[in-house]
Structure to design on (156 residues):
């Protein structure tokens, strides 16, 4: 399954939404890479296994289940999360790209690629639609958590 969508960060025409700079948005994405516990419900621990230039290898502990992923990035441009398929996880990638079509008008593009829904089964199609909706809600929540962290608040 491939799925992508945009989440608007700044709307210069709406004074109720505080403007976020590209630098602040990037810092928020790095928060997500360094410690995903604020961003992923049920995540008990995010352990950095290896650190390199523009790379993190992590273990995400969800209680009885754990997955390992690799986070790569190009600073201020994009961040990618890759999970290899295992017996308990389908694997896949999420790439988050910062887009700025006009000054101060920032968006995040979330692009997912998974092995989910590769069969032509209607049941799988319905499940894929459910997963897309969950991804979209999670991504909106990511932006909310970034705003809270930047404001010095602790997300719940």
């Amino acid at each position: 399954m491939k799925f992508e969508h945009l989440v608007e960060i700044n709307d210069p025409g709406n004074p109720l939404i505080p403007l976020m700079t590209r630098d602040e948005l990037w810092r928020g994405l790095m928060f997500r890479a360094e410690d995903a516990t604020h961003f992923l419900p049920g995540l008990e621990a995010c352990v950095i296994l290896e650190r390199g230039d523009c790379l993190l290898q992590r273990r995400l502990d969800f209680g009885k289940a754990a997955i390992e992923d690799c986070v790569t990035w190009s600073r201020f441009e994009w961040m990618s999360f890759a999970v290899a398929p295992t017996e308990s996880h389908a694997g896949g990638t999420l790439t988050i790209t910062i887009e700025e079509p006009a000054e101060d008008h920032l968006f995040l593009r979330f692009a997912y690629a998974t092995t989910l829904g590769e069969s032509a089964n209607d049941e799988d199609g319905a499940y894929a639609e459910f997963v897309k909706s969950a991804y979209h809600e999670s991504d909106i929540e990511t932006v909310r958590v970034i705003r809270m962290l930047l404001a010095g608040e602790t997300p719940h």
Remarks:
- The longest strand covers residues 92-102.
- Residues 2-150 form a domain with the Alpha-D-Glucose-1,6-Bisphosphate; Chain A, domain 4 fold (CATH 3.30.530.20).
- DSSP finds two helices and seven strands in the chain.
- The beta strands are 2-8, 45-52, 55-62, 65-74, 78-83, 92-102, 105-114.
